[in-house]
């Protein structure tokens, strides 16, 4: 058996034993409040006693707007390095960024035509 394989196996086993022992120690040495009723109560946004059920149905438009925000917000990730290096990229970099922005604008027009952002 090679030395590297033996070393990596022993390191893996040691890390596993350390993790198991840390979890066991925290279970036995840490605080244990199983009978505390106050700890198991629901608390959300300052409301101790929630009203209604948790099975409420939300409109898909909330998720659609969130996904569209993420998609169109990612363009900033690509535009910032381009703006920093615009002189080194030259005319070709400018043309590529205009093509990228045209593609994003076409997507925005498509979303507008499909009325994905209307809340009626």
UniProtKB/TrEMBL annotation:
Membrane topology field: Multi-pass membrane protein
Subcellular location: Cell membrane; Membrane
Broad EC category: translocase
GO MF terms, alphabetically ordered: NADH dehydrogenase (quinone) (non-electrogenic) activity; NADH dehydrogenase (ubiquinone) activity; quinone binding
Membrane-crossing segments per the record: 6-29, 62-83, 89-112
Record keywords, A-Z: Cell membrane, Membrane, NAD, Quinone, Translocase, Transmembrane, Transmembrane helix, Transport, Ubiquinone
Catalytic function, reaction form: a quinone + NADH + 5 H(+)(in) = a quinol + NAD(+) + 4 H(+)(out)
Pfam families, A to Z: Oxidored_q4
Enzyme Commission no: 7.1.1.-
Superkingdom of source: Bacteria
A cellular-component GO term for this protein: NADH dehydrogenase complex
Family stated for the protein in its record: Belongs to the complex I subunit 3 family.
Main function: NDH-1 shuttles electrons from NADH, via FMN and iron-sulfur (Fe-S) centers, to quinones in the respiratory chain. The immediate electron acceptor for the enzyme in this species is believed to be ubiquinone. Couples the redox reaction to proton translocation (for every two electrons transferred, four hydrogen ions are translocated across the cytoplasmic membrane), and thus conserves the redox energy in a proton gradient.
Quaternary structure and partners: NDH-1 is composed of 14 different subunits. Subunits NuoA, H, J, K, L, M, N constitute the membrane sector of the complex.
HAMAP family for the chain: NDH1_NuoA
UniProt-recorded name of the protein: NADH-quinone oxidoreductase subunit A
């Amino acid at each position: 058996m090679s030395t590297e394989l033996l070393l990596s196996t022993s390191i893996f086993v040691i890390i596993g034993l350390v993790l198991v022992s840390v979890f066991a120690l925290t279970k036995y040495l840490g605080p244990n409040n199983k009978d505390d009723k106050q700890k198991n109560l629901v608390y959300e946004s300052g409301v101790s006693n929630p009203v209604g059920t948790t099975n409420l149905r939300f409109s898909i438009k909330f998720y659609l707007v969130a996904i569209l925000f993420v998609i169109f917000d990612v363009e900033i990730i690509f535009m910032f390095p381009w703006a920093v290096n615009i002189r080194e990229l030259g005319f070709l970099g400018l043309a590529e960024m205009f093509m990228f922005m045209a593609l994003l604008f076409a997507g925005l027009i498509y979303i507008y035509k499909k009325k994905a952002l209307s809340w009626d």
